[in-house]
Write a structure and sequence with these properties.
Layout: H1 10-37, H2 51-71, H3 80-103, H4 112-137
Length: about 140
């Protein structure tokens, strides 16, 4: 018998909402990075110095934000410093595992500078997202 929303409790609906809004974007981003890393390296990169590092920075800034958002749905949200640390650490460790993955992909290679760009990106993404959330909460942000 198919499940309808009428038969679902509020708790079940809340869990589904949390999964689809907070956890699924994180899972999709991790899968996208993994799949892209398994493809042969692109020979058609723009001729801009460190452009690939900028791409790593942006991707892992977003990944750090997605980890932060997902972890906010857990009891972890009660410890703000731990939430920030675990979000940065998770994105950074995923970046390290991604570089290890690339080491085994033909025509790709692992690069310590990519790991650094991933780490700095995750730090910046989590930091600026956290600051934005604090600003949104502040009473002065509600004034026109």
């Amino acid at each position: 018998m198919p499940c309808t929303c009428d038969n679902m409790s509020e708790t079940d609906q809340s869990i589904l909402k949390i999964f689809f809004f907070y956890w699924l974007p994180l899972i999709v981003a991790c899968l996208a990075i993994f799949i892209q890393s398994g493809l042969p390296g692109s020979e058609r990169m723009p001729d801009v110095r460190f452009f690939d590092k900028l791409l790593h920075f942006v991707a892992y800034a977003l990944l750090g934000i997605l980890f932060y958002r997902a972890y906010e749905t857990l009891a972890l949200q009660e410890n703000h410093k731990l939430l920030i640390f675990i979000s940065i650490a998770s994105a950074t460790l995923y970046g390290i595992s991604d570089e290890i993955h690339q080491y085994f992909v033909p025509s790709r290679h692992a690069d310590i500078l990519d790991v650094m760009a991933n780490t700095i990106g995750s730090i910046c993404g989590v930091y600026f997202y956290d600051r934005w959330k604090a600003w949104k909460k502040s009473p002065s942000s509600n004034n026109p």
